[in-house]
Design goal:
mainly alpha
Length: 68
């Protein structure tokens, strides 16, 4: 599950950066944005795999296709 992996590392990174006063507020704000963009690409890849990479037999009835 890439989504869970990204979320757990986002929480870890936010806690590490938030506890250190070394980083400026824009850098602290950039961390969630970076992980959200990464999650969006994972979701787009998952949707493309789900919808466009599905092989169906040529003689499949339309009723079965709509129920997938």
């Amino acid at each position: 599950m890439p989504q869970l992996f990204l979320l757990s590392f986002q929480i870890l990174t936010e806690n590490i950066i938030g506890s250190m006063s070394l980083f400026s507020p824009p850098v602290r704000a950039f961390v969630p944005v970076l992980y959200t963009v990464g999650r969006i690409f994972v979701i787009i890849d998952w949707m493309a795999d789900l919808w466009f990479n599905k092989d169906l037999p040529p003689n499949l009835p339309l009723k079965v296709v709509t129920n997938l």
